Amino acid sequence: MSKKPIFTNERLSKFQYGEILLLRQKENPFYTKMIPNNKYVYYHNSKHLFTDNPKKVAGKFDISAEYERFQKTPEYRKKTQRTTRRKNSI
Predict the structure, then answer these.
(1) Beta strand 19-22 with 30-33: parallel, antiparallel or unpaired?
(2) What is the pLDDT of residues 39-56, one digit of tens each?
(3) What percentage of the chain reaches a pLDDT higher than 90?
(4) Which of 6, 1, 3, 2 is nearest to 23 (CA)?
(5) How far apart are CA 36 and CA 43, in angstroms?
(6) Rounded to whole angstroms, how far apart are CA atoms 18 and 36?
(7) 74 vs 11, 69, 77, 83, CA distance in Å?
(8) Strand (E) or helix (H) holding 67
(9) DSSP 8-state class, residue 72
């Protein structure tokens, strides 16, 4: 029993907008045309106006300068003292 393709490659390449080929497992595939989106029950033809909101430009951040500033804080000194004590006790 030889399998015969439902569609040729040429016919598949010339599908129009809205045409689909459903390939189902264990059942025969079928070809159909979908209805346009504006014909569905849930579609409401609303006239929304979308405006383009300007976005903030990302600035550069120099982490090395910020780290040097952080090293001068008392919080950093406390953390480094704790780690040096732990290393010395081991």
Answers:
(1) antiparallel
(2) 777 767 666 677 888 888
(3) 11
(4) 6
(5) 10
(6) 7
(7) 74, 11, 5, 15
(8) helix 63-71
(9) T
* Total residues found in the chain within this entry: 90
What's the Rg (C-alpha) of the chain?
33
Does the model's pTM come out above 0.70? no
Task: Give the Cα separation of 30 and 81 in Å (integer).
Answer: 73
Which one, of 5, 35, 9, 8, lies nearest residue 20 by Cα? 35
String of DSSP letters for 14-48: TPPTTEEEE--TTS--EEEEPPPGGGSTT------
38 Cβ contact partners less than 8 Å away, ≥ 6 residues apart: 45
Inter-CA distances, 7 with 25, 34, 58, Å:
17, 18, 51
